[in-house]
Amino acid sequence: MKIQTATSIFESLASGWRLEAFRLLVKRGPQGMVAGDIASALDISPSSLSFHLKALSHAGLVSVEQEGRFQRYRANIPLMLELIAYLTEECCNGHPETCAGMRSASNCCDAILPPLEPPGESPRS
Known about the structure:
The chain starts with a helix and ends in a 22-residue tail after the last helix. The protein is mainly alpha-helical. Strands 1-3-2 form a three-stranded antiparallel β-sheet. It is elongated, with a radius of gyration of 18 Å. Helices cover 48% and strands 11% of the residues. A hairpin with a 2-residue loop joins strand 2 and strand 3. The chain folds into two domains: 3-78, Orthogonal Bundle (Arc Repressor Mutant, subunit A), CATH 1.10.10.10; 91-125, no CATH class. Helix 2 (16-28) crosses helix 4 (46-58). The longest helix has 13 residues, at 16-28.
């Protein structure tokens, strides 16, 4: 991931409304949500939501698909996971095993964290 992409993503999530909308779409997974349902769930006016969803779309965090007269939004979960990988790939100077104790203190799922073994090494039996 390029630093410009990461910066764009973080800038788009700097708004509480955008962050909440993105988290709601992540929760819904591939099904996504239509804009009106997002507005209702977040208790935000449709015009304000449209502004925020446009910013998320420009950053690549959401996709939008026309369904008749509705627009369905979906979180770009692969991009979110790529951002997490970008943030953690150099964890502990390339030795993520040194921060193993910190993993249990976070709420992050082990599946999306870097492996505890440095690249090219396998765990000892």
